[in-house]
Amino acid sequence: MEQAVCCYRHQDRETGVRCSRCERPICPECMVSASVGFQCPECVGQARPERQAQRPRTMTGGAVAANPRLITMILIGINVAVFLAVQAVGDSLVQDLILYGAWPPVDPTSGVAEGQWYRLLTATFLHQNVMHIGFNMLSLWWIGPGLEVALGRVRFLAVYLLSALGGSALSFLLANPNAGSLGASGAVFGLLGATFVLMRRLRYDSRPIVAIIVLNLFFTFAQTGTIDWRAHIGGLVTGAVVAFGMVHAPRERRALVQWGTCVAVAVVIVALVVVGTYRINH
């Protein structure tokens, strides 16, 4: 007489089904439906890390996030928090964080020439009034999520921050030291440049984004007395260059090319600031 086969986890339950992976007998309670047959709980647990390791990736190699707007919302939150802090503290906080240019050469007043390089970034989170921050944050909310989905969180943040720094570096090098530069518009222009590069890479119709860039540049140069065109141009070029390295990197050397591009752009930014600092001190 043939001996009854019992579940390996419940010895009092006979079964005729085996795990399709390890072939151990399993009862209905222990059966986990698989693509082919059923698996036991242990095999399912072992396979889960393998499935997690094969999570879908963005076209640039970034992890696909559950919330595609997280970094965008955090950046907006920081901008709004700084704006509210300025309203509470007053102009003294603005003077501690704002960026002043280095042309024509004068005695250092901005702090950048004295080593306060943080102003290159902090100035990009300052805004003059409600309209200023409102326009920039609406633009960031409109442009940011699409890029964040396409690039992944880390790469999107790299594009944003480098664009902000690129705009500040050109502003520091060429702007008048008597007029402070502030605002997230340089970073937003960088996102516009990155969006154009991405749309060209995907072979989408890029005419709408080109029209938006041209229109914004028109308003920029039409109001050079109140708008820092250097920050806008610096951000636009920086964002486009970094995004080009991100989306055109070959798969076999993707990380090397992408982060190498970021490092190269950062070196150029540092060089611009060094030149501006040298100009002031000499």
Automatic annotation (TrEMBL):
Predominant place of localization: membrane
Membrane topology: Multi-pass membrane protein
Highest rank taxon of the organism: Bacteria
Keyword Transmembrane helix set for record: yes
Residue span(s) of domain Peptidase S54 rhomboid: 115-247
Gene3D superfamilies listed in its UniProt record: Rhomboid-like (1.20.1540.10)
GO CC annotations on file: membrane
InterPro entries in the record: Peptidase_S54_rhomboid_dom, Rhomboid-like_sf, Rhomboid_protease_S54
Pfam families referenced in this protein's UniProt entry, alphabetically: Rhomboid
Segments passing through the bilayer: 70-90, 125-144, 156-175, 181-199, 206-223, 229-247, 259-280
Gene Ontology MF terms: serine-type endopeptidase activity
Record keywords: Hydrolase, Membrane, Transmembrane, Transmembrane helix
Location relative to the cell: Membrane
Family classification: Belongs to the peptidase S54 family.
PANTHER family reported for this sequence: PRESENILIN-ASSOCIATED RHOMBOID-LIKE PROTEIN, MITOCHONDRIAL, RHOMBOID PROTEASE
Protein name: Peptidase S54 rhomboid domain-containing protein
Organism encoding this protein: Streptantibioticus cattleyicolor (strain ATCC 35852 / DSM 46488 / JCM 4925 / NBRC 14057 / NRRL 8057) (Streptomyces cattleya)
Lineage, top ranks: Bacteria, Bacillati, Actinomycetota, Actinomycetes, Kitasatosporales
